[in-house]
Specification:
Strand content: 25-35%
Shape: globular
Number of strands: 10
Helix content: 10-25%
Largest sheet: 6 strands, antiparallel
Number of helices: 3
Strand order of the largest sheet: 1-8-5-10-3-2
Structural class: alpha+beta
Length: 186
């Protein structure tokens, strides 16, 4: 039998909180989570991440000719710490968990969009953005009560259930997010 994956105490506590959040809210709706252990947030912010992608433009208005700027995010390759965190969560949930980083440029109006095909956990590691969370109803007409609009800041974690889509907007400072996509049973 394989030895369970071990993280440092603050991150292990965070994984336990994430697993509880998914178990509690998975069939009910989205949830915003702030770590209970005061040491977790500094540890999350210390997780190594890929370098912020270099670009020759800084604002949507400075885009090169032909670029739209509608989705100015760039993915980053997961680091070993992100892989370890996702593996520990996957072991706890009995699911495959895939980590990815997302870099949102400052002054962008539109940003990362994801549909509700899988459950997701978004943790803001740096910066802030607005998140528009919409329950997918099978039609293109979302009712007002099917949409939640909130602000995500560094350290905040959002659980996005399977039947919801999210859009990250109004990025006024460079923002880095760690996204954990919860897949099929392992």
């Amino acid at each position: 039998m394989r030895e369970p994956i071990r993280l440092e105490k603050p991150l292990e506590s965070f994984v336990e909180e994430l697993a509880l959040c998914v178990a509690t809210h998975g069939d009910k709706g989205p949830a915003l989570l702030w770590p209970e252990d005061f040491n977790t947030l500094p540890e999350l912010l210390r997780i190594s991440r890929p370098a912020y992608p270099r670009t020759s433009w800084r604002r949507v208005g400075d885009l090169p000719a032909g670029a739209t700027g509608e989705h100015p995010e760039q993915p980053g390759v997961p680091t070993p710490e992100a892989e370890l965190l996702s593996s520990a969560l996957g072991e706890r949930l009995g699911l495959r968990v895939r980590p990815s980083y997302w870099f949102l440029r400052s002054m962008s109006v539109g940003g990362r969009q994801a549909s509700g095909a899988v459950e997701r956990i978004l943790t803001v590691l740096e910066g802030a953005c607005r998140c528009k969370l919409t329950r997918e109803t099978g039609t293109h007409d979302a009712r007002p009560h099917d949409t939640v609009d909130l602000r995500l800041r560094a350290g905040g974690t959002l659980f996005v259930p399977r039947d919801h889509a999210y859009e990250l907007l109004d990025v006024h400072t460079p923002t880095v997010l760690l996204e954990l996509a919860l897949g099929e049973a392992a």
